[in-house]
Structure formats: structure tokens, C-alpha cells
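Quick log. Single chain, no ligands specified.
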Amino acid sequence: MVKRIDRDVSRFRQIVRGRVKKDLKKYITRGEMIGKKGKDFVSIPISQIHIPRFRLGGKKMGGVGQGDGEVGTPIAQGDQPGTGSAGEAPGRHILEVDISLDELAAMLSEELELPNIEPRGKKNITSRKDKYTGISDTGPESLRHFKRTFKQALRRQVITQNYDLKNPVIVPIREDRRYRTWKTTTKPESNAVIIYMMDVSGSMGDEQKEIVRTESFWIDTWLHYQYDNLETRYIIHDAVAREVDQNTFFHTRESGGTIISSAYKLASSMIDAHFDPSEWNIYLFHFSDGDNWGEIDTDECIAILRDKLLPRANLFCYGQVESPYGSGQFIRELEDYLKEEEKLILSEIRDKDGIYASIKSFLGKGK
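-> predicted structure:
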């Protein structure tokens, strides 16, 4: 039987989920919740949800501490004079709730109508898992099922009329013992790696990096929801590329020119060294303002994409973040030369409001 409090908690969670889902687009475009991310949960501020709570009664009601007392005895801090004029609008009631990342990913899936990813067959590995499935009358003592053993002993004593209601002592014998049995199953597990690349040249400002940070959070959340084993790598580049950790990726301040091919070469060598395409689902995300050093390097980028990265990747997603200092030409070159490539997804992100549509275009094909 489901307890009433469990029903109330379940109903409250449904209300919270509905409120979060209703405002999900707003949360997607804001980066503040990312800073509140824990190991498995993220805190989200929700407005206009009231939680039942105990309140103090009126002054004339009985209770602990009754009596006249002595004049001048301090009881509690009195009301303090307020400032400002009276208002007529109700206040906003803000409640912070913890939402699991899996639940957040499920909401993202429903809101953006994202299909589940279908990993390529060669990239599946299997793991063995033992699951207790039944009861046996033989087995190791470490797996003895005490409740079933007790029930079997009780059943035997009742059948043989050795059970005494006045002295209900149950004494199991060897034939009463019952043990757990297990079954070994193989479970397919899909390995996946995300390689993030970001232009950190002088034309990429803090606003552009914040957009990349916010969008990457949602991409990470979705792919963790789809894969049991997900690894993430980070590459930053200006005129040269290097692999960095997550904190450096999102907070580094660089300047200088831009040679995009340096990042593509590093990503390709990383795949060669660590991520065999026959065992890994490979996702590459590159964010830039579209500035690149000359047509020669753009031609080299296109060659690397066509010959090395796209044949081995599930998806290559290029997000071009609008910047007042970037030319924005690179996405046009990709459209012209690689428009037939189904694995290449292009997205222009003009501001934070563009993150929503960009995520949908990147993840909407279920690859």
C-alpha cells in the first residue's frame, strides 16, 4: 500500500517537473544553474510553489511560556521599522529544488523532441552482470535466504503438527534451508567520447565563452543520459591547439590569431591514439566566431574534416558564436564545400537565446 506521504511527495515532484518543463527554455538560455551542479543533481530556482509548513498561532492562544511575566523581560527581537512605502503587489516565493540530471535530460528530450541515439553496431561492448533471480535448496551459506528458510521451517512444523501455538518456536533443520540463486546476463554498453574544441583567440570574448559553456552543459547532460560510459576531452586553440582540462577550457583568457586546422589535427591524433572508431561513438563539437587565418588554412580544415574526422565520427557539430570582432566566414565555407555531408551539423548562435535552437539542430537527428 502506498503511504499518503509518498503520494504527496510524488504529486509535488510532478508539479515541480511541470513547472521546470514549462520554463525549460528560460533555464537553457541562462547559465546560473550550471554553477549549482552537484554530482548527480542540479539546483533550480522555482517561483510560485508553496510548501505546507507549521506556523505560529495567534498571541491569545495557549502554549508553553504562559503567564504575565515581569515587566521589561526581553522575549524575542521585536519588529524592526521598515523602509520604503507600502506596495500592493504580492511577493515572489522562490523555492530551490534539486532535479536529477537524468530527469533534466528527459525533460530536454520531450521539450526539443529529441530522438534517442542509436549507436553504431560496431561500437558496442558487453559487460557481465550477476542478478539474483530465484531460490534453491542448495548453495553457499553466504547466500542463505533467512526469511525463506524460516517460512519453510514453519510450513514443515505445521504440516507435521509440531507447531505449538503456546510456545511458537521455529527451529530450521538442514532440509529447510533456502539459498539465493543468480543468473549472469550480458549487457551491451556503448562507449562514447565528446571532444570539445573552442576558439580562444582575441575575438572570442567572455560573452561568447559563456554561450559555449552553457550549451556544452546541456549537450553533456543529454549524452550522459544516452550512454553508460561517456568520456569528455577538451581542446582550445588560437594559432596553436592544446588539450586542457574542463576548468581551463571554460575560463582561459587568450589572445592572438586563429588557425582552426590546429584543433582539427589535434582531435584527429587524439582519436588515433585513444578512441578506436570500432569501439567508440565519437562526437566532436567545435565553437568559434568564424574567423580563420586565410583561405589556405580553411582548405586544410575542409580536407581534415572530409578525410579524417567525418568518416570516424557519429557527428561533427560546428557552432558559430556571433562576435563583433569575428568575420563569420568559416561557416559559409563549410556550407559550400561540405553541404552533402550528413554527419556535419552547422549552427549559428547569435546570442544566448540561440542556444535553444542550436541544441535542437545538433542533437535532433539521433546519431
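The two ends are 43 Å apart (CA to CA).
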